[in-house]
Amino acid sequence: MLTKIKNIFIVLLLVLVITQFLRPEKNEGSYDSIASFEEATGVSAEVKTILQNNCYDCHSNTTRYPWYMQVSPVSHWMAYHIEEGKEHFSVSEWEFYTDKQKDRKLEELIEEVEGKEMPLQSYTWIHGELPNQDAEKLMSWAKELREKQKEVKKDTLDPKEPNTAETDSLSTDDSAQ
What we know:
disordered C terminus
């Protein structure tokens, strides 16, 4: 029985050593896409700091890697979390989202932060909780941005522009007489 446990331990140790050499690809893109997001959304310095400390590592193409990310299986686990985070919302992809998608992403951000679903509990174990004051600032910013985007969309619809459906139906009526 003891030799069986010893063999299992040796196999596990061997697997752990081998996985140290099989590292996942790092999420190390340019900060330009984040800067573009910040400019487009009018992020204040205070909210920018909150996003940098709590969001960008998993929701952008640029991740700051702490020392423990060099250790497998943590590196694989975190790579998976980053991939999942970017799949749901990536500030690096902000310019490619439609207006409707942007609104939905902001709505989800508010819901996730309000419900204390974000940042993930596994992230907060090491990095600490998102303080309620910071969460409120982040949600207020997102709500204001949603309102601004709705106003801009309303302003781009020119009320003086004739409705083509009405114009077409009137011209059809005129030609019948």
